[in-house]
Specification:
There is one protein chain. By secondary structure, the protein is of the alpha+beta class. Helix content is 42%, strand content 19%. The chain contains 16 helices and 13 strands. It has helices at 6-16, 26-33, 41-49, 57-65, 87-101, 103-109, 113-127, 135-144, 153-163, 182-185, 194-209, 214-221, 225-235, 280-283, 297-300, 343-360; strands spanning 2-3, 36-37, 69-75, 78-83, 167-173, 176-181, 239-244, 247-252, 272-275, 311-314, 317-326, 331-337, 364-366. Strand 10 (311-314) and strand 11 form a beta hairpin. Helix 11 (194-209) packs across helix 13 (225-235). The longest helix is centred in the last third of the chain and has 18 residues, at 343-360.
């Protein structure tokens, strides 16, 4: 076991998370990260593009609409973008626990097994042959077949059918995604035995997030510690271990454990990165102290809303937040550093936010970083 400092972990995570600009293909970004949280699809697209410098929003749209990347509920009961060929085995790992955990909510909503299976039959009949429906259209079809979708019933039926591998989100049409049958949208999927899948899960998490302790993996994946230990037993021969203050941090043995290679233009160690809300750089770990001081965490995750604000990252540390205001003709972007920014920080933040503007391909007014310390949210 090799000893490492906390700063070693931080700099290696920037590489693992593809934030040094070494990847140009957005499909390879999603493959590396395995899953990027995507309940807000606009932020998820930027999470991919910021890791593949030069990618546009249209490029990510093409990736999604082609079926190479699929949006569904593969883990934690939350929408993610995942490589299409990996969705089925992820669902097979996560569905039993999520299904059991949702039993009380199903009873509250009156969604018994017969109702869910009736909805599944309706979905297959309505969508077979490559057909697609918007969320609203699907609710109408369910109602037409005598299935009540009032309140949260419609949402939970859609979630259950996706969680059990019948539905997923397909192409985007008129600013919304269409529901499709997973078997039609992703006709070829990888099939893994359970222990093999657990080992792959851990290895892929560490490829896109490492170095990290096993507890971070269990938080991110929501597998049990018993399953995590099985994963470690399967993948262990492919892993190295770094000792950080007595805590083992795992990383793939193929990872660069020497001096880091040259970063892409604009991605030097002191460059500011403008990352989206719910980004994996913060969300992907149970222990977030490697990225942010505990006293600043509430500035990024205010109150008990569960909302993760967009973040400004410099040298692997979160140094502020930013927000966007959508208007009819343009978007205004507001940086909010935690401390009064130096001229170099302000210039780098401006460059990072203009990179976001280029990604959108539409007019964006980037306000200068304020000269005073940002107030806590």
């Amino acid at each position: 076991m090799t000893r490492a400092s906390r700063s070693d972990i931080t700099r290696r995570r920037l590489v693992s998370q593809a934030l040094t600009g070494a990847i140009s293909d957005p499909a390879l970004v999603v493959d590396r990260m395995l899953a990027l949280q995507a309940q807000d699809l606009r932020w998820a697209k930027w999470a991919v593009a910021v890791r593949a410098p030069g990618s546009s929003s249209a490029d990510i749209d093409t990736l999604i609409d082609s079926g190479a990347v699929v949006r569904s509920w593969p883990m934690r009961g939350t929408l993610h973008l995942v490589p299409s060929q990996d969705l089925s085995w992820l669902l097979e790992l996560s569905t039993p626990r999520l299904w059991a955990g949702a039993a009380t909510r199903r009873r509250e909503l009156g969604l018994d097994e017969a109702t869910i299976e009736h909805a599944r039959s309706v979905a297959v009949d309505a969508l077979s042959g490559g057909r697609e429906l918007s969320r609203g259209e699907f609710q109408v079809v369910l109602q037409r077949h005598g299935i009540n979708v009032d309140g949260q019933r419609g949402y939970h039926l859609t979630w259950h059918l996706a969680q059990s591998g019948t539905l997923c989100w397909g192409r985007q049409l008129d600013s919304q995604q269409m529901l499709v049958l997973l078997a039609d949208w992703v006709p070829v999927s990888r099939r893994l035995e359970r222990d093999e899948a657990l080992g792959e899960y851990l290895l892929r998490y560490l490829t896109g997030h490492g170095p990290a302790p096993l507890t971070d993996f269990t938080w991110w994946s929501q597998v049990t510690m018993a399953d995590a230990k099985i994963a470690l037993g399967v993948a262990g021969e492919y892993l190295d271990v770094l000792d950080v203050d007595g805590v083992p941090h795992l990383l793939p043995s193929s990872a660069d454990v020497g001096p880091l290679g040259r970063a892409a233009a604009g991605r030097c160690p002191n460059a500011v990165l403008a990352l989206p809300g719910f980004d994996e750089y913060l969300l992907g770990y149970r222990d977030r102290s490697f990225a942010i001081e505990p006293e600043n965490l509430t500035r990024v995750v205010p109150g008990k809303t569960g909302i993760f604000l967009p973040i400004l990252v410099r040298g692997g540390r979160i140094a502020g937040t930013w927000r966007r205001d959508w208007q009819a003709k343009a978007i205004t972007v507001h940086p909010a550093p935690f401390a009064a920014p130096s001229p170099a920080f302000a210039r780098s933040a401006d460059r990072a936010l203009h990179e976001y503007a280029r990604f959108l391909g539409r007019p964006v007014h980037v306000l200068p970083a304020p000269p005073t310390v940002a107030a806590a949210t």
